Q: What sequence folds into this?
């Protein structure tokens, strides 16, 4: 499914290099450049009529809520996508019991967001909550488009296929299904297996912590991040978490993440993503796509990936000394190039700094 979707995108967007960056056919059709949005498909070029209303929803989320950046609202929206979908259980489904799903129940039920495991998600929920009614769409579609866009708001974040057509949540998500950082690797992997994920997919998904901060695990050091480059979607989370001899200033290691890095069943996959941005991006995108569909079937939904902006390729942003022909492990990103790419590829959503 992923390969099909991504190759569709590659064909649809016909990337060709402009100043070292791929640019989309949609942009070229608009004349590109000149202050017009780069790499952001325009509704005037929409292909599937079902997707047309979603361009405006995209802009409401990326503009008003994320302001085109990998900030607090984007990181919260990524976690929200997981906490909404991660209450899905194959075992509950098999027994026809009330189940979780990627259904947006977190935007609908007033009590679900108040659970302690959802601490820190209240603000993003209050920002997203009015949108399904405002635009006449389902909460699951809205919430999971927000998750996909949030990953793209983080430079380096991949394009994850975006679907619409989920129906309204059937019930509040059952309790006790979201992972806790003090659970063992075997307990955590069993819970993810009950969602339908293999161990390697979990190691890919956990890399979302590249854009994460903690506030409630150790409130004394609130806002410490899970890697030193929280503003970009890079593999440094894996590198730095795996380095058990050094705790870098301003960062925080969750016990579960350290356990994944060191446990014999997960260490190889965890280490395998270090410095391996391309593999991680594609495996993360596939796993996140699957997460965004838990409890649903892609065949029942419409793929509206046509409205997604281009991913920002971190390789183009490395400082010259770490660049050269070969991609170094964890290239140092030039802040000037990074900001220029954000200005170019997320232009319509940015607010003046
Ligand atoms: C073993 C599985 C996981 C555990 C135990 C875990 C645990 C946590 C904890 C304790 C926090 C910090 C919350 C706070 O104190 O504010 C956090 C943050 C975060 N998690 Fe996870 N997580 C897991 C998997 C995931 C997955 C699969 C994703 C997404 C695909 C994800 C995305 C995030 C993000 C983006 C944040 C940062 C939120 C923010 O900064 O507002 N996590 N996670
Ligand atoms: C979409 O294209 C129209 C017509 O070319 C243009 O007026 C508008 O500004 C474009 N919108 C975006 C978001 O680029
Ligand atoms: C953490 O960050 C939030 C917003 O980003 C801020 O309001 C809060 O004061 C910060 N807390 C600490 C302890 O720095
Ligand atoms: C851990 O990080 C330190 C400081 O950056 C570095 O000197 C050391 O080689 C790293 N260890 C491993 C195993 O990568």
A:
């Amino acid at each position: 499914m992923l390969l099909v979707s991504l190759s569709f995108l590659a064909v649809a967007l016909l990337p060709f290099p402009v100043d070292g960056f791929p640019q989309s056919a949609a942009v070229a059709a608009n004349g590109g450049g000149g202050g017009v949005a780069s790499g952001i498909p325009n509704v005037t070029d929409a292909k599937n009529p079902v997707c047309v209303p979603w361009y405006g929803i995209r802009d409401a989320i990326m503009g008003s809520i994320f302001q085109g950046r990998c900030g607090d609202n984007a990181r919260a929206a990524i976690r929200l996508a997981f906490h909404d979908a991660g209450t899905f259980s194959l075992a509950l489904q098999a027994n026809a019991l009330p189940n979780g799903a990627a259904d947006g129940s977190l935007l609908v039920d007033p009590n679900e967001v108040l659970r302690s495991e959802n601490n820190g998600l209240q603000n993003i929920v209050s920002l997203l909550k009015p949108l399904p009614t405002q635009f006449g769409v389902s909460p699951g579609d809205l919430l999971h488009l927000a998750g996909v866009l949030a990953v793209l708001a983080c430079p380096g974040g991949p394009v994850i296929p975006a679907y619409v057509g989920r129906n309204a949540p059937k019930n509040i998500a059952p309790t006790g299904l979201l992972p806790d950082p003090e659970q063992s690797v075997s307990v955590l992997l069993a819970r993810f297996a009950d969602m339908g994920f293999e161990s390697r997919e979990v190691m890919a998904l956990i890399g979302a912590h590249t854009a994460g901060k903690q506030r409630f695990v150790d409130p004394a050091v609130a806002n410490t991040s899970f890697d030193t480059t929280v503003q970009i979607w890079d593999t440094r989370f894996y590198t730095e978490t795996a380095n058990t001899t050094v705790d870098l200033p301003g960062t925080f290691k969750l016990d579960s993440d350290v356990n994944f890095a060191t446990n014999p069943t997960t260490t190889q996959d965890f280490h395998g993503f270090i410095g391996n941005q391309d593999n991680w991006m594609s495996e993360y995108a596939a796993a996140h796509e699957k997460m965004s569909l838990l409890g649903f079937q892609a065949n029942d939904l419409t793929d509206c990936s046509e409205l997604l902006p281009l991913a920002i390729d971190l390789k183009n942003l490395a400082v010259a000394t770490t660049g050269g022909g070969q991609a170094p492990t964890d290239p140092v990103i030039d802040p000037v190039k990074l900001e220029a790419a954000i200005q170019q590829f997320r232009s319509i959503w940015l607010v003046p700094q």
Q: What stands out?
A: The two ends are 39 Å apart (CA to CA). Strands lie at 16-18, 21-23, 163-164, 213-214, 224-225, 302-303. DSSP finds 16 helices and six strands in the chain. The pocket of 2-acetamido-2-deoxy-beta-D-glucopyranose (ligand 2) is lined by residues 30, 36-37, 42, 44, 348 (CB under 6 Å).
